[in-house]
Here is the input.
Amino acid sequence: MLKFKISGLLLVMTIILSACNGAGSGGDSYPVRYSKAEDKAISGGTVTYAYTAPFQGLFDPAFFEGEDDSNVLDFITEAMFTVKDDLTTVPNIASWKESDDHTVFTFNIRPGVRWHNGDELTVEDWKFALETIASPDYTGSRYYSVEMIKGVEAYHRGETDQLSGVKVIDPYTLRITVNSARVNTIDNLWPYPMNKKYFSGVAVKDMADSDQVRKRPIGIGPFEVKEIQPGQLVRMQRFDNYYKGKALLDGINYKVVKDSEITGLLETGGIDIGTAPRETFAALKELDNISLMQSPELSYEYIGFKFGHWDETARRNVMDNPKFTDKRLRKAMYYALDREGIINQYSYGLGKLIETPIPSSSWAKIADTEIDTYPYSPEKAEVLLDEAGYLDVDGDGMREDPKGQKLVIHYDAMTGSSTTVERTQAILQNWRDVGLDVRLNGGALKELNLFYEAVEKDDPTVELFNGVWGLASDPDPSGLWRATDLWNYSRWSSEQSEELIREGVGNKAYDKEYRKQIYYEWQKLINEEVPMIFFAERVNITAVNKRLQGVHVDSMSNIIEPDKWWIKEMD
Here is the structure.
């Protein structure tokens, strides 16, 4: 449940929350062929995709660390499986069959798929990628995507040079045996091959800095890299031996621009497509040559309560903070927030209220009619606080706790956009309006890394915190919600939640309708217990020049089947 695009467990905070302080300058112009028939796709032309932060240049799926590099990978690579708009995983290059006990998967890949250097893709390349990630010398963050494979622990410890759970049957057939049945094995299994011949002689520990990753990356996608200007520009051209047929465009230029430049460059045609910063939304709406495509981000913003701490020795969460024990306090704080008003005023209306941690685009999302939607209601908040014994005993306008002691709640949030300070003050004022003395911890917002260091290490001053989580296509809450999950930053768990999470990936869950009902029950539990306040599901804005056709966006990406993009004549 924690992957971003392609299984970026360690990326979920930095990808979604990092400030985009880009570098670079204006757009180039490129010769373009136009179609005289507006509705007929025609080959030719080059378009520019803009990004507003320098890229790192880790151009292999096993090693990239952020959206800055994954955007390039979406043009030059492809996975064995793909994720549809409804977040279900389906075959792409590989199809598969499962054994009756769901522990043996036999994959057949399509013959005739070519790497950009002309080599044919075989299952040896996929096996090589799995071995690379499982290696004790692997420096990336994708080990979790192979840890289900039989024998991987011994391989990872260096006790054997054979990954026993992976067997090549023939150049197009691979058999993978996993340790135990799990309904979402395919969703979690690493799906990207690496060209074994191309990496010949490169030690695993050196791969991330190798020319094969940094300077001359290759893939099997519709475009191939021709030039890299580090951190600023990647020029790609059509790969004519792409297994689905030639792309319509001649090429793609991936260009870094400044936030302040993006509106002007879109207006003049210096760039054609890119994710638009929220601050540019109002100005972009006024441009006649631009279409704004909206899609829900596969993420949610939340305000978490700290229920305890992480026990490093026991490797589990311990609920030992009594401050938020009373569910009525948590619910009151939910009702007291004018979430919709805050989104409209400080986030340009680019957000959708949510009440559970499963995204609206998921097949497992429960209907809002079946749960409490916690609408803005200071009156309900005050009733709940009164019932729970949080009363203004001394008449200063702020409530004391049920023992009559002064109640102060510390709130942590991160620096961010130009509206972040005002937005934070609005949130705090909502709670003060119902008599809760909630104060910004330390009197100031925290820089992203300092914020997450304090939250993850359970700094005792952190009591209430505003964060964002990126999600994967599969709705399994493992990784964020179990008692044994380090990233369960609220440190909340319950026996019922643990049982439902286990049941959601157990043998009965192979019946999708049964699995859906399990996740409905889990969401009802979370909705009733309120271990955190779910603030909003963010909306992603993609700005597209109207001359560029064939663009499709969903909650996973705005680079989907770029081989079908084409340019039409504009009046």
Summary: The chain is about 25% helix and 20% strand. Residues 1-37 have pLDDT under 50 and may be disordered.
